[in-house]
Design a protein that fits this description.
Length: about 210
């Protein structure tokens, strides 16, 4: 979804926020990245997080399958393949959070427990825009500014639809204008990943030099 290249990963300091019960940190680290995942759920003890990973994944899988019409299943191959991938990711997360807990830091947007320029690249998926019905424009702006604060090169945000698949063009235009006024350049970049119908674009931020 973030169109990450080998150059994006090798030797780069990467933020994944919110990290959730996902396997990005362990998989990207195996490819040479130095990943820190941040999420409020990481305040929970690692063994408890590991135990919760599978039931939380099963809940998310069941929800997606109950609303199958909202999604394109061809990227995964079908609902069964989607479920298998999600379960595998949860299992890798559970193992990694037990063995390498230092990769997982408790915190949340829009106030991260990190100094300026802590990362080369910041990634944020399925929080901003996804929950625009309960996170207002001020929250989005503060969160985006915060991602730009901690990233030296770029921040990438995906998807740009809400969780029902509704477009948010007015919100995106407003935020891009506000960010531009703060000296943060933005762009909309196509991504080859499209699970939610129409979710084929990410927002990129180039922090203030």
């Amino acid at each position: 979804m973030f169109q990450l290249s080998d150059d994006d990963l090798a030797g780069r300091r990467i933020l994944d926020c919110p990290g959730g019960a996902a396997s990005f940190a362990v998989e990207a680290s195996a490819l040479g990245a130095e990943v820190t995942a941040i999420d409020p759920i990481y305040a929970t003890a690692p063994d408890d997080l590991a135990a919760r990973a599978t039931p939380e994944t099963e809940r998310a899988v069941a929800w997606a399958h109950q609303h199958a019409e909202r999604y394109r299943w061809d990227w995964y191959g079908g609902t069964a393949e989607h479920a298998a991938i999600r379960r595998g990711a949860a299992a890798r997360f559970a193992e990694d959070v037990r063995t390498t807990p230092d990769r997982y830091l408790a915190g949340s947007l829009p106030s991260l427990p990190c100094p300026d320029d802590s990362f080369d690249l910041a990634l944020s998926s399925h929080l901003l825009f996804s929950y625009a019905d309960r996170l207002d424009a001020d929250f989005h702006l503060a969160a985006l500014v915060e991602l730009a604060r901690v990233a030296t090169t770029e921040a990438r945000v995906y998807p740009l639809l809400d969780y029902t698949g509704a477009p948010l063009d007015d919100l995106i235009d407003h935020l891009r204008t506000e960010l531009h006024d703060k000296g943060i350049q933005t762009s909309l970049r196509k991504t080859p990943y499209e699970f939610h119908h129409g979710a084929d674009t990410m927002l990129t931020l180039q922090p203030v030099a």
